[in-house]
Amino acid sequence: MLAVIRVLTTDDEDLLNAHGRLISERYGIPTRSYCIPDQPRGIYDDETERVAVPKIVQLARRVEEEGAGAIFISCAADPALAEVRATCKVPVIGAGSAAAAVALAAGERIGVLNLMESTPAAVAAVLGRRMVAQARPEGVTNTRDLMTPEGKKQALKAAGLLVEKGADVIVFACTGYSTIGLAGDIKKHLGVRVIDAVEAGGLIASYVLPC
Amino acid sequence: MLAVIRVLTTDDEDLLNAHGRLISERYGIPTRSYCIPDQPRGIYDDETERVAVPKIVQLARRVEEEGAGAIFISCAADPALAEVRATCKVPVIGAGSAAAAVALAAGERIGVLNLMESTPAAVAAVLGRRMVAQARPEGVTNTRDLMTPEGKKQALKAAGLLVEKGADVIVFACTGYSTIGLAGDIKKHLGVRVIDAVEAGGLIASYVLPC
Predict the structure, then answer these.
(1) What is the sign, positive or negative, of the torsion defined by CA atoms of A60, A64, A66, A69?
(2) How high is the mean pLDDT of chain B?
(3) Most Cβ neighbours (<10 Å): which of A64, A128, A208, B123?
(4) What is the ipTM of this complex?
């Protein structure tokens, strides 16, 4: 079983399970989703990441004790990834580094599609000088904006910019793109390879999970 | 369909199809295997790589014309990878960079298991400073040596050295380890994660192949 750690607080089961469901459906892996306490708005700056780290570590310890075969931290900033790896024995995967790694294997020149911020350090560190461009949709200030026709249009436009700058692979540096299924739209309209961060995490998990 | 390019010359169908078969069985992907002309001993030094590059490019062009959905160059040195990517429109995957990338996503400190040579540039470039150790089995001078009990014992010993040096993930920098199924032995005896280069290539292919 893959434990999926969502780095926000929610009692909406549908939202909680959204990433785990994507992974289960695509890779046939059993998943169980968990969320951290007291952060309904998730992680959105250095301070909210700092307070989230010990919560993620504690949660990871618990899910390992409960028998998780691997742990997926489903956020492209890879919060607490190093700390959880230092604590847990099972494989620990971060959405950001997994997506960046799959992009490195899938193409030559990587374009990063961010959401609100610049490229997360976890993504930039893996890509190194293979990152040829980064962009983000105009006018989008949270993941909810993405769910509007205008938000999706702006995300597609930003992806187009990455292709213009020479990217042969686009990597999502936010898991918010996974839930709206943006990869399909980009492939259809721009004909470029796309690496979705949640899917990439699931792909790596499907490989490292004990059979 | 995934085209698997073997960088040697053989009329032994079993040998030719060995990597493609592993990928088909593990990921349910249809594969077709091809080999380059006039190199029965494959690629084993700079000169044999140099002469192989145009052959690989020509072969890749042909398999793309014949309808391959993606191309896998099944050698950890990633010979001609950049050249083929510059020529072909379909996704092109190299065993070395794919294995290194999957290792980056699966763990923190990567140990590289080489065969006869030192770490291929294609693997080292992706791993960067995440490569904590490299080793190779003593007394092994070709892939046939690996198929003996002594060869396998030495390979396991080299893998043990990587773990002693702090690796939490071992990546195979030679596809010769795939055919002897060394990953299973290492996991069993050393309890460490292993990234097999042919399997890693298949994993990335399973993601980028058009559905």
Answers:
(1) positive
(2) 95
(3) B123
(4) 0.95
